[in-house]
Write a structure and sequence with these properties.
- By secondary structure, this protein is of the alpha/beta class.
- The chain has 4 domains: 8-73 and 307-426 and 467-506, 3-Layer(aba) Sandwich (Rossmann fold); 99-291, Glucose-6-phosphate isomerase like protein, domain 1 (Rossmann fold); 434-466, no CATH class; 509-548.
- 48% of the residues lie in helices and 11% in strands.
- The strands form 3 sheets. A 6-stranded mixed sheet has the order 1-2-13-12-10-11, with helices on both faces.
């Protein structure tokens, strides 16, 4: 076994945490700050350009020590060593998990099946650099000799979410190329994209490891047919490239073998933006910025590998997540970036976190009797303050939140930046302190309300507070800092999975729906329903077919 299989609930640390939880669960954060005047500094990690304040959490130093004891009892240090060295920790699929190798130094040596993979990684990086620079500089031209103006990434899941998020997040650093993303098999999606394009100056990047993914191939074939209405067959080789392992199917599509970028089975889809899957990123912001993204991730890798657990950002954030998920019973976490550039960040994390750790079978193949996984959701502030913060502040659910902010703005409008950051900081203070009955009454009196009206309104204006938050304050949004942030969450996922004794790197849960969709598609395309279904499914099929006739 590459990973040890330790049920966390059987550890001494877990049992002590349960007892400790009973003593601390009702303690208010304000009380914790009153009891420990140095709390803010003691629960702070300053690393590189990251300033991570986790003092507004319902924990004490004892909580933290017990959580670190838990990490050690499940042998997280050994798991980290396996993670980075290329051991087959994706045991259900017999694969290593080496997205970290994609951002390693050239001097590194990591073996898979007895072969050092680093030279191959750098060969692909060189190919990405050469290709993307040729397109950006106008050296690689369309079939008619014109430079490319647009790029369309065709993929789904990890072949779409990561690149789309990064391209959006780093749009400040974009060059002249307009990059679009097509993912959904919904035909309206692809048609809305292509109606804006000039086929003569558009480059298409098809991203599919097997080159058989239904959504991706449907969109690719629709785009191919549209393109060939405006261009000759031989133009396919100049306008389409692929990121895939299925060389024969890609060539049959019409793509030149030189324009095929490889993928590896030791990189999971949702962690693949660092590979050739990130070709659209390199095209959008230039290879040097893409490489800077990778360098940032590598810096976080090194921090995660080497920092003591009490000063280790991915470890601390993961342990806090376990604390709320498994002891407080909090089922979700909100991720609130105070940057419009990170508009797609929570969506990206949903796949990374929920597809990885949404498991109910442990590493021994046994059903789990404790909670795993967390529901991830969020939107940028300040928009989110006017959308769902009411639920976090005054709802009945405990929702730990991670606030992400950047101290310096990119376009230089300091007035806007000061207002943004004042909200960023104020919300964590408000969530912690709340508003007491005495303060509410005083405010209402000052506004001239009658005693009777004050009595009626007061219950509705009280804020309990005691809502936990982590503040991740970063100097500036750069390709490097974004690389660090993404890698931080990747490692947080890993730590959670180790503690929960689950395999984080398979995703069998997505397969059943795909299989049934193929069965139902055959029923839709045939005159009669040929596959057995339940009464509800039969009725839905009949209704759909009746509307198509």
């Amino acid at each position: 076994m590459a990973l040890k299989t330790i049920n966390p609930t059987t550890t001494d640390a877990w049992k002590k945490l349960q007892a400790h939880f009973e003593t601390i669960k009702d303690t208010h954060l304000k009380t914790l700050f009153e009891q420990h005047t140095n709390r803010a500094n003691a629960m702070l990690i300053q690393w590189d350009d990251f300033f991570v304040d986790y003092s507004k959490h319902r924990i004490t130093s004892e909580t933290l020590n017990l959580l670190i004891d838990l990490a050690n009892e499940v042998d997280l240090p050994d798991a980290i060593q396996h993670y980075f060295s290329g051991k087959e920790i994706n045991q259900t699929e017999g694969r290593a998990v080496l997205h970290t190798a994609l951002r390693q130094d050239k001097s590194a040596h990591i073996e898979v099946d007895g072969t050092n993979i680093i030279p191959e990684v750098f060969a692909v990086k060189d190919k990405i650099k050469t290709f993307s620079e040729s397109v950006i500089q106008g050296e690689l031209k369309s079939y008619s000799g014109k430079p490319f103006t647009d790029v369309v990434n065709i993929g789904i899941g990890g072949s779409d979410l990561g690149p789309a998020m990064v391209v959006d997040a780093l749009s400040y650093y974009a060059n002249h190329l307009k990059v679009h993303f097509v993912s959904n098999v919904d035909g309206d999606h692809v048609n809305e994209v292509i109606k804006k394009l000039n086929p003569e100056t558009t480059l298409f990047v098809i991203v599919s490891k097997t080159f058989t993914t239904q959504e991706t191939l449907s969109n690719a074939n629709t785009i191919r047919s549209w393109f060939l209405k405006h261009a000759p067959d031989e133009a396919i080789s100049k306008h389409f490239v692929a990121v895939s392992t299925n060389i024969e199917k890609v060539k049959a599509f019409g793509i030149d073998e030189y324009n095929i970028f490889p993928m590896w089975n030791w990189v999971g889809g949702r962690f693949s933006l660092w590979s050739a899957v990130g070709l659209s990123i390199s095209l959008a912001i230039g290879y040097e910025n893409f490489d800077s993204l990778l360098r940032g991730a590598h810096k976080m890798d090194t921090h995660f590998k080497t920092a003591d657990f009490d000063k280790n950002i991915p470890v601390i954030t993961a342990l806090l997540s376990v604390w709320y998920n498994n002891f407080f019973g909090a089922e979700s976490e909100a991720v609130i970036p105070y940057s419009q550039y990170l508009n797609q960040f929570a969506t990206y994390l949903q796949q990374g976190i929920m597809e990885s750790n949404g498991k109910s079978i442990d590493r021994n193949g046994k059903p789990i009797n404790y909670q795993t996984g967390t529901i991830i959701w969020g939107e940028p502030g300040t928009n989110s303050q006017h959308a769902f913060f009411q639920l976090i502040h005054q709802g009945t659910k405990l929702i730990p939140a991670e606030f992400i902010g950047f101290a310096k703005c990119l376009h230089g409008n300091q007035d806007h930046q000061d207002k943004l950051i004042s909200n960023f900081i104020a919300q964590t203070e408000a969530l912690m302190n709340g508003k007491t009955e005495a303060v509410v009454i005083e405010e209402l009196k000052a506004q001239g309300y009658s005693d009777e009206h004050i009595k009626q309104l007061t219950p509705f204006k009280i804020f309990e507070g005691n809502k936990p938050t982590t503040t991740i304050f970063i100097d500036t949004l750069t390709p490097e800092s974004l690389g660090k942030l993404i890698a931080m969450y990747e490692h947080k996922i890993f730590v959670q999975g180790i503690i929960w004794n689950i395999f984080s790197y398979d995703q069998f849960g997505v397969e059943l729906g795909k299989q049934l969709a193929n069965s139902i598609l055959k029923d839709i395309e045939s005159d009669n329903v040929v596959n057995p279904h339940d009464a509800s499914t039969q009725q839905l099929l009949a209704h759909y077919k009746s509307l198509q006739s």
